[in-house]
């Protein structure tokens, strides 16, 4: 019994010979994780949900039908001073998007004849969207990885907001 006590005392108080006890290693790892957590919170700011963000930023959504012509879409982009139109079916469900870049590309590829063609020939399918429950970091990741300037926020199949890259980046910087 005395030997066991001496062993415990010696193990606890003996100078380190290059090996780290399990308790010291666990304590060091815990401190490192706490430090990383503090650094990540400082670096990333709070994780803002898209729903919280869009509630403070009212945005108008401009939709057109796929049967509209390219000229009508260009007029809508100009009159509303937006860079993206959502293309929705009769129920209001998102089926695609049309941007000012799509307009320029159509004119470059097809010439002036493209103005009389319908949008369903030029629209991009709405494959990249966000949900109100996603975070702004999620939206930034999608937008940067897919080179998107706008990202529709969809709830129950209906567009409820459009995020644009500049606003999302500004909000992220403000959170930092």
Largest sheet: 4 strands, mixed
Task: Give the CATH topology of the largest domain.
Answer: CBS-domain
The number of distinct β-strands equals: 6
Mean pLDDT over the full residue set: 78
Number of domains: 2
What would you report as the Rg, rounded to the nearest angstrom?
Answer: 28 Å
The coarse overall form would be elongated
With strands numbered from the N-terminus, the spatial order across the biggest sheet is 1-2-3-4
List the helices and strands and how they pair.
Layout: H1 2-13, H2 22-44, H3 50-55, E1 63-64, H4 70-80, E2 84-88, E3 94-99, H5 100-110, E4 124-125, H6 136-145, E5 150-155, E6 158-164, H7 165-175
Parallel strand pairs: 1-2
Antiparallel strand pairs: 2-3, 3-4, 5-6
Helix pairs in contact: 6-7
Structure, explained:
18% of the residues are buried. This protein has a four-stranded mixed sheet. It has helices at residues 2-13, 22-44, 50-55, 70-80, 100-110, 136-145, 165-175, and strands spanning 63-64, 84-88, 94-99, 124-125, 150-155, 158-164. It is of the alpha+beta class and 176 residues long. It folds into two domains: 19-46; 50-175, CBS-domain (Roll). 48% of the residues lie in helices and 16% in strands. It contains seven helices and six strands; from the N terminus they run αααβαββαβαββα.
């Amino acid at each position: 019994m005395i030997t066991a006590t001496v062993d415990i005392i010696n193990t606890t108080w003996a100078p380190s010979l290059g090996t780290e006890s399990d308790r010291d290693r666990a304590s060091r790892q815990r401190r490192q994780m706490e430090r990383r957590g503090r650094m990540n919170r400082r670096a990333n700011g709070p994780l803002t949900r898209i729903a919280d963000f869009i509630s403070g930023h009212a945005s108008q959504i401009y939709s057109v039908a796929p049967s509209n012509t390219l000229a009508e879409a260009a007029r809508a982009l100009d009159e509303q001073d937006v860079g993206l139109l959502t293309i929705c079916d009769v129920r209001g469900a998102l089926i695609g998007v049309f941007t000012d870049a799509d307009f320029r590309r159509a004119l470059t590829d097809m010439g002036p004849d493209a103005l009389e063609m319908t949008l369903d020939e030029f629209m991009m399918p709405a494959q990249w969207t966000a949900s109100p429950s996603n975070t702004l970091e999620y939206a930034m990741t999608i937008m940067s990885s897919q080179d998107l300037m706008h990202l529709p926020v969809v709830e129950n199949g209906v567009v409820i907001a459009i995020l644009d890259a500049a606003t999302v980046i500004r909000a992220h910087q403000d959170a930092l």
